[in-house]
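Thread: Modeling a multi-component assembly for a lab meeting

Hi all, long-time lurker, first post. My supervisor asked me to bring a structural picture of a complex we are working on to next week's group meeting, and I have zero experience with this. I have the sequence lines for every component (1019 residues in total). Could someone generate the structure of the whole assembly? Inputs are pasted exactly as I received them:
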Amino acid sequence: MDDLLADFLTETQEGLVALDAALVRLERAPEDTATLSEVFRIVHTIKGTCGFLGLTRMEAVAHAAENVLGRYRDGTLAVSQAGISQILGAIDCIRGITTGLEATGAEPEGEDAPLIAALNAVAAGEAAAAAPRPAPAAPPPAMPAAPVAVAPAVAPPAIPPTAPAAENEAGGANAPPQTIRVTVEVLEGLMMLVSELVLTRNQLLQLSRNGADSAFAVPLQRLSHITSDLQEGVMKTRMQPIGNAWAKLPRLVRDLGVELGKKIELEMRGAETELDRQVLELIKDPLTHMVRNSADHGLETPEQRVAAGKPEAGRIMLHASHEGGHIIIEIADDGRGLNVERIRQKVLSQGLATEAELAAMPEREVQRFIFRAGFSTAAAVTAVSGRGVGMDVVKTNMERIGGTIEVRSKEGRGTAFIVKIPLTLAIVSALIVEAGGERFAIPQIGVVELVRVGGEGAPQLERIKDSAVLRLRDRLLPLVNLAGLLHLDSPAAEENAFVVVTQVGPHVFGIIVDRVFDTEEIVVKPVAPILRHVTMFSGNTILGDGSVIMILDPNGIARATGVGAESGEGEPERDGKRQALAHRSDQRTALLLFRAGDATPKAVPLGLIARLEDVERERIENAGGRPLVQYRGQLMPLVPISGHWDPDLAPARQPVLVFSDGDRAMGLMVDEILDVVEERMAIDGAGERPGFLGTTVIGGKVTEMLDTAWWLRQAGEDWFGGAADRARGSGHRLLVIEDSPFFRNLVVPALGAVGYEVTAVADAEEALRLREAGASFEAVISDIVLPGMDGFALARTLREGGAWRDLPLIALTGRIDPADIEHGRAAGFTDYVAKFDRAALLDSLRQCLTAPVAG
Amino acid sequence: MQTQTSTAPTPGVLARGAVPTDAADDIFLTLTVAEQLCGVPVLAIRDVLGVQAITRIPLAPAEVAGSLNLRGRIVTAIDLRRRLGLPPRSEGHAGAMSIVVERDGELYSLLADQVGEVLPLPRVERAPNPVTLDPVWRDISDGVHRIGERLLIVIDVERILAIG
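Re: Modeling a multi-component assembly
Sure thing. I ran the full set together rather than chain by chain. Output:
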C-alpha cells in the first residue's frame, strides 16, 4: 500500500474513533464550542486529505457532513439530535469506506446520494427555519433543492459515553496498521528511563573498575553495550530531517496548481534540519495546511499576477533553520498578501473588536486576527480550504508543543508565516568542559578540534599584548577565556589549559577552558524565561549523573567577544552624530597589527589572513625579480610591503602573512607582527596611498589600513578567479552599494573573481542616479548603513517602481539578527547576507539569479 | 468528576479534601527568611525539597541561585534572601530548603532558610500590609497574618518571581 494511503488510514481511523465520542458529547452539550471545533476540524481534515488522495466518494460524504457542522459552528443552525444522527451516519459510511480501502486499496462501490441529500437537507432545511442572522461566511455551495428530510436514517445514538466505538471497531476486520503512534509522553518516559539506566550503568562500571578482577566484568560489559545501543535507539526514533515532512509538498503544490489554475514554484531550503520526530509529526499537518493556504488564498491567478506586474508563476518558499534552542520554519509566498481592510471589516462584523480598538491597533495586530477560530477572509468556500479552519488550528497545534507563530504580510507583496518551535525534545551531542570551577556543555557541532596547550611539546598560548592567541598549524586563532567571559574566577593557570577550537559561520576561534571531560548526548531544554536574556547559553540539560548543566551557545560567545561577528553597540551613536567625512563601519573587527617598511603600524582584519608564517631566508627564491617560496607543494609568490626585497638585508626568518583562496596562496612580507586588537574601524581619507585604504587610530596610534585587494593584485594578474570559477558568475551585472571603501574593496574583487561584472557606488543617491540614467543590472547588493538614504529606504524606493523594481536585492550587513532580517524583508530585500561571508553571498546570488522571480 | 467541578464554584481546596479545614481558610506553608516568618499558599506549591545540589548560572540575575534537577525537570532556584536584598546566610547554616512553585509551565524553587508547617489561617484575619512594613517586604507581600507575637507575611508568588 502506498505510504500516503497508509498514513491516511491510520490517521482517519484515529479521527473516527475520536469523532464518535466527540459527537455524542456534542449532542449532550450543544453549546460546547470546543467540542464542536474539534469535530469540525477532524471532519475537515478527513475531507481535505481524501480530496488530495482522490477518494471522491469519501470526500463527498465528508463535505456534506462538514456543511452541516459549518452551520453549527457559525451559529446559523441549532445542534439537533436528527442532525447529529445524520452526521454519525456519515461517519459510519466513511468508516465503511475506510475498511474497504484497507482491504483493497481502493474505494469500494456504494451509493451515498441519499445520505448526502439527507445531510444537505439538514444543512439547508433547518437553516432556513432558524436563520436568525445572515451567515458570516458564504452559504454552502451546491445547495440542492431537496425536500426537507427529518427522519433519521440511522438509529439515534444510545451509546454509553465511555468507550463508544469499541463495538464498531471490533466488528470491522481491521488489517494491522503499518505504523503505530506513540505519544510524546511514552517516548519522554523511555528517554528518562534510558538516562537513568545509563547513570546506573556508569556507577556499576565505576565499581567494577575499583574491584580488580570481578566476575561481573564480562556481563557488565555486555550490559554496557546494550545500554548504549538502547540509548542510541531511543534517540534515533526521535530525530528526523524536516524534509520528511516536506516530501509530499511538491506533489501537493503541483496538484493544487492544476486544480486552481495557477502556476506555482515551490522552493524548499534547510530540508536537512533535524528535529524531533514527534515535533515533526505535530507540525506536519499545520505545515501542509499553510502551504495549501498559500497556494489557495495567498497566490493570485496568473492573470492577476501579470496585471500586478509580477511574474506569472507564484512562489512559495519554505525555509527551516536552527536558531538557539529553536527551529524556525518560514512559509512565505509572493502573493497578494493579507487584505487588512477586509480583516478589519470581518472583525467588526463578528464583534471581535470595536472600531475604536481597531483604529488604535497596529497593522500587525490586525493581521493576527486570522488566528482566531472561524476567521477566514476567503470570499469563496472552495474545496481546497477557506472555511477558516486553517490558521486557528495551526496556531493551536503550534502552541501545544510550546511553539509560536507569527504572520508578516504586505499587501500586494506576499505573506510569510514564521513558526518557531522549541527544541524541547531535540538531542545533541555535547562536549562537557570545566571553566572557573563550573561545568558547561558545548554542542559538538560547532567544535572543530581540541588542543591541549601548555604541557611539554604542546602548542603554547601566546600573547600579543593583552590578547591571547594560539598559533595552530601556523594559523593564528583568536582566543576567548570562558571563565573570564562568564565572570567566573579562573583558578587554573591559563597557560596549562585546553582550547576548544570552535567554528561559527566562517569564523574560527578558540575557547579556553580549564578541563575537558567527555562527550555526552544531551537533551536540550530551553532555559527559564528569566534567563533568556543571557545569550551565552542556548539551553540547559540534565547530565547522566543527575546534575544540571548549562549549554553554551557558540554564536552567543562569538557575538559577545566580537570574534568575527559584530555587535550593534554603535547604533545610538549612528543615529546621533554622523561623521560625514569619515568612512565608517561600526563593527568591531579583530585586526592584526604589524610593521612593514616604515614606522607607522599597519592593520589588516585577522579574518582575511589564512596563516602566519616564519619563512627562513634560505627558502626564499628569486624568480625574475620576484621572491617566491615553496609552500605546501606549490610556489607561493611573496610580496614585500616595503616595495622591494633584498636577500642580503632580509632577516634570517621572514614573517609572512599568508592569504589564500581555494588552492592559491600569496604571502605578504612584513617586518614584525605587533598585536591583535579589536577595533571599531573609522577610516579616514580613503586611498591616499596605493595599497592602503586610509588611516585609523588604534590604541592612540595612527595606523594604516591595508588594502588587501590591492596587494593581492600585486601577486599576479591571475590571482583572482580561475576559468571554472569565472563561469559561475557568467558575466551577470551587479550593482554594489557600500559606503566603506574597506568593505567595497573586499566585496568587489570577491565578486569579480567569480565572473560577475560589478559596479560599485558609495551611496544610495548615486545608485538611484544610475537607475535614472538607465543603467541595467541583474541584481543589487546593498549595505544597510549608508550615508544619507539607508539601505532600507533604498529598498523601499526601488520596490516602489521603476526599472529595477523586480531585481533581486541582497542586503549586506554586519549584523544578522532576526529583527533586522524581518525589517529587511519588509523593506523589500530578497536576502540577507553577512559581510565577509563570501560563500554565503555567492550562494545567495546564485539562488537569486536562477530563481524565476526576476522580471 | 468533570460535571462536579463544573457545577461547584469552589476551587481546588474542596477537591483535595484531605486538609481538614473549612473554605474560609487559606492554607499556607510557613517558612523563614532571615528570621522573618512567611507563608506561601500551599496551592501554589509543587514540592518541598531539602538541601539540593545547585548549579550556578553565570551571568544570571543576582537573585538566581542556579538550577537544580527535580526528577528530570530543571528548576530555577531563586534565593529569597538575595531576592529581598538581605544579607547572605551565615557560614554555619545547614543550607537552604527549596519550595518549588510553578509559573507559566516553568518550575521555580524559592530558597528559604527553614520550612515550618502547613497552617490554615482564616481569610478574614488577613490584614493589609502595615504601613510600617519594611519596603523590602512590602513589594512581595500579599498581606499579613498575626500569629501570637509574630507576623506572618503572605508571599505573592507572582511578584516574587518578577525578576529583571
